[in-house]
Structure formats: C-alpha cells, structure tokens
Write a sequence for this structure.
C-alpha cells in the first residue's frame, strides 16, 4: 500500500458563470515513481474529467506544466510525489492570465515578451545559400546555448516580487534573452539599442535584485550573472545617455 | 462566429508549420498558424540529438556530400522512399542548416586538435583539422556512413524551434495558440480552410484561407508506450481521413526507438549510443556485437529495436514492476562528457528515474517513436485529392523516409520540406483568387456543433472516452508493435473495429463550458481509432518485411510485389479504411539492394524500370555509392 496523498487543488473556470474560485480536495494512493504528471492525469481520468492543467512533453523539456506546488513554482512533470509531504497544494502560476484551474495563458505573455525584446538576431547581412557558414568559436556557441536553454516556463516570473506588483515588468526570462543576444556576435544591435529596450523601470532598473528568479529556475539558468551583467552594462549606457544629452552634438 | 481570413492557414506551429509560414510571410503573404499549445512548446522542442546535413566539416564526416546522405536515406528507408524527394532533401539540407545558423542557432563547432570518442565501448582518437576550426560540427547517428548529425548539445529541437519562432515573431506571423483544427472545409475539389475550436474558451471558429497546410506532427499516442508528447494524436491524418478524399500514405510505417526509459517511455537520445553508449542485458553483457558485428549498437533503429525485443523474448531482460527491460550503459563516457554533451539525458535520468548515469545504468526498452506515414503529398507538398491543401513535416508523407526514417533526418525534413513546400505554397498563392461559399462553411460548422452537443448530452451512449482510448492503445501496443504477424494483426483489426463502435457511443461525464479537456478528446477519439485501424489493416495487408515493418510470417523484403506505398482513405459509414497503392518512386537512382545491416532476404524486383536492364540479379549487389566508406579511425 502506498501513502494516501491529499491534493488540494485550485478550481475556477472563468468560462462558467456559476464557477467561483475555491480549493477542492482529492485523495489518491501513491504509486512507485509517481510524478505530478501521473497523479494529475489519474485524477482527471478517474475522479474529475473537467480538471484543467497543461502537459506536453511530460519530460521537463517544453515548459508547459509550471504551477505552484506547495507554494513554489516548478514543473509538475518532473516533480516526484515521494519528495512531497502527504498533503499537496497546487495553484496556478500568478502573473499570467488564468485559463482554468491550473492552466494559465503563458503563450500570450511570452509572445509579447519576445516582441518587446525583439528576440531575434538583428543583422543586415542577407543569407547567401551558396556560401559556407560564418565560423564561430565552439566555446562561445556553448555559452550561448547555456542561455538559450530557457523553456519559457514562467517559474522565474511567478516567483518575482516585482512582476507580481507591476504588470509591465519584463522579468528575468526577458533579461536572460537579451543577455543571450548581446553575447551573440551575429546580432549587430548596439548598446544604445539594447538600452532602449531594457534601460528603464520596466526593465533592468526596476529589478530588485533579490534573485527569487534564479532559485526557482528548473533549467538552472545562471540568471544572477545575466542580471548583474545587464545592470552593469546598462548602468554604463545610462551615463553615456546622460552625457550625450548634456554635450552638444 | 469568429471568422478569420488569411492567405495561408498553417495547422501546426512546430518546425515544419512555422518554416512554411516564414517562407510565405517573407514573400509578403499573410499567414496564421494554429497550435494546440504555445508554438515553442510544440513537440519539435523535444528533439534532442540533432539533424542531418552533409557539411563534411568534422574529421569523421570528411568526404561527406549530398550523394552519400541520399544513399544513406534510401538505404534507411529500405528502398521505400520516393527517390526524387530524398535527392531534393539531401541537396537542400546543408543550405537549411546554414540558414538556421544565420538566424541564430548556436550549433556546436569544430574544435581543432586531438579528441577521443567511443564506439562500441572502446575509446578511439580523432584529429580535427585546423582549417575547419569554428565550422559546424557533427556527431555520429545510427545508419549513416559519415558523422553527419549537426547539434546543439542535446537540445537541438529546442534551439531550432526557438530560433524558428523568433523569425515568426520578427516577421509578425500570427500564431493562434490553444486553437485546435477539427475539420477541413472543402467542397470535394478544393480546400478553403478549417473549422477550429478555441481551447481557452471552448468556442468554435472559422478560418478561411487560400491555402491550407497540415503540419500537425506524428501519431505516437495511438500507442501505450511512446516517446511522443501527449498531444501527438495524429490530428492531421485524422483531418485528412475525415474528408473521405485525402489519403494517408503508409500508415503502417511506424518506427520504434530502442531507448525509451522504463517507466514513462521518455526518450534518451540515440546520441548516447552514437557517442559510444552500449546496450547490456540481465547478465550485464553486451549483445548487439553478436547480432550485428559490423554496426553493433549503431545499426539503424528498427534493427536495434527488434534485436532488443528478441533478446528480451529470449529471457535476457531485466525484470521490473513495469515489465522487462534492458540496460543502456554510458558510464564509461565520463562525467565531463555526460554533463556537457549529454546534459538533457543526465537530467532526465536524475529527475525522472532517480538514476545517476555517471555511476548507474539506465533502464530502457523500445517504445513507439516516429510516424513515417501521414497526409500524402506530391514532391511540392501538395496533398492528394484537394486543391489548395498542403502538408509538411512528420504529419506528412512527402515521402523521404519510406518504411524507416534515419535518426536526425526528421528535424532536417521539417526545415528542408518547410523551405521547399513554403516556396511552392507561395508560388501557389501568387495571383490566387478564391471565393468562399458561406453555405458550405455553415454546413461544416453545423456538423461540429452537432458532434459537440451529442457528446455533451450523451445522446449516442455513455462510453467513457478514456476507457476507449486506453483499449485502443493496448491493442496497438500488443498486436501492432515491433514484430507483426497475420494472427496478431487480424486480432487487432477485429478488436479495433469493436473499439470503433464504442468510440461512436462516447458520452461525456463533465459538462463544464470552456476548454473542457474531456470534450477535446471526445471530439478526436473516433478519428484516432480510425487511424489506428488504418495502421493495423495496412500492416496486415503488407505481406513482407521492410524497414520498421517487420512481419514474422513474411521475413523477406518483397521487391517483386511490394515496391509500393499504401494510400488509405475512409468512406463515412465504413468500418474499415479503403486501401489503394501506388509505386514508391518514379525514379530509381539507386536500384533496390542490401542495406548492409539487419538480416534481410530479398525477393528481387523483375521490373526493368526499377532494376535497370532487366537484370534482376544485379539488385542484390550493393551499389558503389552505398558502400560504407572506411572511417578514418586512428588508434
Ligand atoms: C523525444 C523525441 C526526440 C526526437 N529527436 C529527434 C532528433 O534528435 N533528430 C530528429 O531529426 N528528429 C527527432 N525527433 C523527431 C522530430 O522531433 C519530429 O519528427 C519533428 O520535430 C516533427 O516536427 P513537426 O513540425 O512536423 O511537428 P510538431 O513539432 O509535432 O508540431 C506539430 C504542431 O501541430 C500542432 N497541432 C497538432 N494538431 C493540431 C490541430 N488539430 N490543430 C491545430 N494545431 C495542431 C501542434 O500544436 C504543434 O504546433 C524526435 C522525436 C521525439 C519524440
Ligand atoms: S532579481 Fe529581479 S527579476 Fe529576479 S525575482 Fe528579483 S526582481 Fe524579479
Ligand atoms: S529563465 Fe528559467 S524559470 Fe525563467 S522562464 Fe526560462 S526556464 Fe523558466
Ligand atoms: S510537460 Fe513539458 S516541461 Fe512539463
């Protein structure tokens, strides 16, 4: 016999006028190697088919399944029940718009983020299909990959005090994305151009620096280093900005 | 009713769908992509190992070129592919990889100097050339003569999809995520778009388009054990079957991957074996070196999967509460290699199994992995049967994979086909005018409304949709798996026909408005069972063994009778698909021969247009271009 687990799950269906936000409890017997992916699917199939949550890869790769697990944002699919107490509280991520129960609209949020930081290589060079590729140092490629690993799960945003207070705060995932392109020699953006995107209160100057974000990132992306780097570089830019306004052209 | 008009409707925002949309958008056409999940979460993101393109930069890939890649692909397909398409693919792959580099992929690059690599558990040395420093490098994958698989650590699908979606954002292509297409709108001649359901609000919508693309990925979830993501239900093929006109090509061509972890079937990449990982049995002994002395663990994946199943059947499996399994051993690759080059694998083992691959072996067994079959198209990506309908990616049967695709060839297919089909779609859209008949649209919407209200009210019965799905998955796993035979397949077809009847009687238990996950599955289930029937029935008809399709009762590859592709359609009211057949290929650049791996007896073709000069016996020989060249191994 496995442990008897008690799940307290946030329930609310905004599409249903009769629905009000509340917590609902479910009992489930734990089985060997049980993850929240296995548990939630069993609850839906065996107890309440209307239960909403998101899984895709069920392998910690796609970032679909982030939720608040006993108060901490994490990917549900890689959370093993054996590491949790008998009573498990599940809430949707804050900050993002609720779709229903544990499901939030992270797609719309991240699309807006990608538009805002202009998340693509900016270059004037056209692609020449007949040419060889530009060489790149492998070490650099690996460093870019390190930051490219973000899966846009939203855990860092959910854990961020500032993002919870201020809707337009860009959040650590956006800062990390900018750092990724700043590191990439193929992107021809200048310091000033980056400054226009993040050199403000919605951006890096609004960041409280308490690093709730880094602690929860399931991909263990070194967010602290990126935030520090951005703050330094953008600090410099702001001084230059100031000077260029004081000095006549 | 919300109605959207666009030039191009892409059903699917994985790599293939987005690549087509990018091409159309850069030619100035308006496109909308639909996706069940946010685009960056599409299943493409889960691909780990890499994509093939004959760049020949790595020393172990020296001398590689599209000719060799083409030959590997044809051999891999067991001569089941369309050779014109495979040729086009191999020629375009290097361009596609470089274009992705231009858009920002941090491909791993050549580091000059001496390095070590492992093959079959032994350590070898290689020397990368100084003049290749910084060019895109490659790793070894099963079934290839050269190291040809370009990669970014083991998150290749992730970086490709993010970079592709960056282009989508840059070009302002609209993506409507959490929107599921449920029916193609057509008049029997031409496709006009699709009826879709919003998975945020539960409401139906209409998309009207001059051109419609199906890029919905594979149908792994027809099986109980699969490496595929939970939404890989075969939507695209289901949409095609629902038209009654558009055929699904080679549905029986289903590939199993040797290394799904036990339990959960999460994939660990072929890169593990490419980099030197070995397979071991209950006694801790290797076995692939006995079955396949030449290629060993790196024989093509259908061959490895089959030997693993065979070995388990011989009683050599490791017992576990989740059934028997074998071991994958990568311990000898060392901590540094595992933590940098196989990082995702390391994470998966630790997080999902509690296994540390640096010190422990990984429990694995074969699981469904790839769907070679899909919406049948011509070489331009235009679907058979309906004008204005296209398809690309895993959801299509373009058909460069035939009865077996090589690892690394499907990521490559998504961006290569995406590029080529994208151009053809844009050409099609040039000057294309179309009038939409409101009555036709209304009929298609009404049909879906009717389906929804019957399911919600339980008008046709009270079958539990999850029970029906589970029953289907069990039948597919147990009777339409890696080894197939007439008895099992007959049993499967009969069982699936019963399950099909049950699928018609599904009634929902929940009636909540909005997304309602039970309703989403309820709307799909009948189509899924029909697709499963296409797989099982076509597998029963194909009385030979070719590529991933292995018949115990017909072990030989029958080039005389089966150099042909299955085309499955479904007539409403029937309880079986209608099967037609067409030749695999119009062009036989490489006449059928031995693959060089896997046991294969061949019944030769007698068709002079296939074997050339009517000399059937020649077909038994390996053409020069196919011979595995000596790899320059030092040590
Ligand atoms: C675990 C794993 C690892 C792999 N590793 C490799 C590898 O290393 N190398 C390699 O070459 N290949 C690999 N593959 C295969 C490869 O990843 C896939 O074949 C490829 O990514 C498929 O891309 P796609 O664009 O065709 O489909 P997908 O990426 O699956 O995208 C399908 C899209 O269609 C959408 N969709 C589906 N149905 C509907 C509908 N009804 N309405 C609206 N939208 C819909 C989905 O939301 C999604 O956006 C791997 C596969 C798996 C399972
Ligand atoms: S360090 Fe900045 S981004 Fe991170 S949680 Fe704090 S305020 Fe948010
Ligand atoms: S930075 Fe980490 S926590 Fe934030 S979205 Fe990316 S993967 Fe998730
Ligand atoms: S389902 Fe993909 S990360 Fe959890």
């Amino acid at each position: 016999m496995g442990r008897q687990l008690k799940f307290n799950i946030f329930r609310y269906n905004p599409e249903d006028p009769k629905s009000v936000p509340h917590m609902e409890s479910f009992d489930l017997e734990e089985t060997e190697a049980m993850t929240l992916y296995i548990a939630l699917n069993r609850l839906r199939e065996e107890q309440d088919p209307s239960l909403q949550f998101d899984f895709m890869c069920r392998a910690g790769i796609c970032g679909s399944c982030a939720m608040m697990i006993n108060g901490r944002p994490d990917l549900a699919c890689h959370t093993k029940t054996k590491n949790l107490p008998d009573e498990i509280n599940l809430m949707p991520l804050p900050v993002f718009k609720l779709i229903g129960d544990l499901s939030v609209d992270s797609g719309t949020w991240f699309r807006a983020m990608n538009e805002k930081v202009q998340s693509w290589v900016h270059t004037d060079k056209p692609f020449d299909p007949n040419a060889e590729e530009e060489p790149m140092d492998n070490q650099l490629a690996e460093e870019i990959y390190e930051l490219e690993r973000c899966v846009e799960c939203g855990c860092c945003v959910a854990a961020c005090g500032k993002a919870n207070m201020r809707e337009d705060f860009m959040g650590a995932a956006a800062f990390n994305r900018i750092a990724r392109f700043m590191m990439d020699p193929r992107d021809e953006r200048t310091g000033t151009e980056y400054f226009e995107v993040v050199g403000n209160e919605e951006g890096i100057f609004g960041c409280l620096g308490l690093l709730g974000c880094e602690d929860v990132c399931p991909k263990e992306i070194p967010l602290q280093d990126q935030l520090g780097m951005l703050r330094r570089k953008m600090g410099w830019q702001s001084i230059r900005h100031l000077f260029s306004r004081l000095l006549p052209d | 009713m919300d109605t959207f008009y666009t030039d191009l409707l892409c059903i699917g925002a994985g790599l293939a769908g987005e690549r087509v949309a990018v091409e159309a958008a850069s030619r100035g056409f308006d496109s909308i992509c639909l996706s069940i999940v946010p685009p960056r979460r599409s299943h493409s993101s889960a691909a780990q190992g890499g994509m093939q393109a004959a760049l020949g930069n790595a020393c172990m890939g020296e001398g590689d070129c599209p000719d060799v890649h083409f030959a590997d692909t044809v051999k891999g397909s067991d001569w089941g592919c369309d050779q014109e398409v495979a040729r086009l693919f191999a020629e375009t792959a290097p361009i596609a990889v470089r274009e992705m580099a231009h858009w920002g992929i941090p491909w791993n690059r050549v580091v000059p100097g001496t390095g070590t690599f492992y093959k079959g558990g032994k350590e070898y040395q290689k020397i990368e050339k100084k003049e290749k420093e910084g060019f895109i490098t490659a790793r070894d994958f099963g079934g290839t003569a050269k190291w040809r698989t370009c990669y970014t650590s083991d998150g290749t699908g992730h970086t490709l999809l993010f970079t592709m979606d960056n282009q989508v954002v840059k070009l302002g292509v609209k993506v409507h995520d959490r929107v599921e297409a449920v029916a193609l709108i057509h008049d029997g001649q031409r496709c006009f778009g699709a009826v879709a359901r919003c998975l945020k609000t539960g409401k139906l919508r209409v998309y009207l388009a001059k051109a419609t693309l199906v890029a919905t990925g594979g149908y792994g979830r027809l099986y109980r054990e699969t490496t595929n993501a939970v939404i890989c239900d075969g939507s695209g093929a289901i949409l095609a079957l629902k038209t009654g006109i558009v055929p699904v090509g080679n549905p029986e061509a289903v590939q199993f991957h040797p290394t799904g972890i036990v339990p959960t079937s999460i994939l660990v990449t072929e890169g593990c074996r490419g980099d030197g990982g070995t397979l071991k049995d209950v006694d801790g002994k290797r076995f692939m070196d006995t079955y396949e002395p030449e290629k060993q663990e790196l024989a093509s994946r259908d061959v490895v999967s089959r030997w693993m199943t065979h070995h388990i059947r011989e009683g050599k499996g490791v017992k576990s509460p989740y059934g028997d399994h074998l071991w994958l051993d990568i311990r000898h690759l060392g901590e540094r290699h595992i933590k940098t080059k196989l990082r995702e694998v390391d994470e998966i083992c630790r997080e999902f199994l509690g296994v540390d691959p640096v010190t422990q072996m990984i429990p694995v067994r074969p699981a469904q992995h790839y769907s070679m079959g899909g919406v049948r198209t011509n070489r331009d990506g235009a679907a058979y049967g309906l004008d204005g309908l296209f398809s690309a990616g895993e959801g299509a049967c373009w058909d460069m994979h035939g009865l077996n695709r090589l690892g690394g060839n499907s990521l490559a297919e998504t961006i290569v086909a995406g590029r080529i089909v994208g151009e053809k779609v844009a050409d099609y859209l040039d000057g294309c005018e179309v009038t939409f008949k409101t009555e036709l649209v209304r009929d298609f919407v009404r049909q879906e409304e009717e389906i929804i209200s019957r399911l919600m009210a339980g008008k046709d019965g009270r079958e539990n949709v999850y029970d029906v799905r589970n029953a289907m998955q069990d039948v597919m796993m147990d009777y339409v798996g890696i080894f197939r035979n007439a008895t099992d397949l007959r049993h499967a077809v009969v069982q699936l026909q019963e399950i099909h009847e049950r699928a018609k009687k599904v009634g929902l238990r929940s009636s909540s408005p909005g997304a309602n996950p039970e309703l989403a599955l309820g709307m799909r289930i009948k189509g899924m069972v029909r697709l499963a029937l296409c797989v099982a029935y076509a597998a029963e008809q194909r009385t030979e063994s070719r590529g991933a399709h292995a018949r115990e009762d017909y072990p030989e590859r029958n080039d005389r009778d089966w150099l042909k592709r299955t085309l499955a359609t479904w007539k409403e009211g029937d309880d079986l698909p209608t099967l037609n057949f067409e030749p695999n290929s119009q062009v036989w650049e490489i006449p059928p021969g031995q693959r060089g791996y896997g046991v294969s007896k061949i019944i030769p073709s007698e068709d002079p247009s296939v074997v050339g000069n009517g000399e059937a016996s020649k077909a038994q020989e390996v053409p020069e271009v196919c011979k595995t060249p000596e790899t320059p191994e030092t040590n």
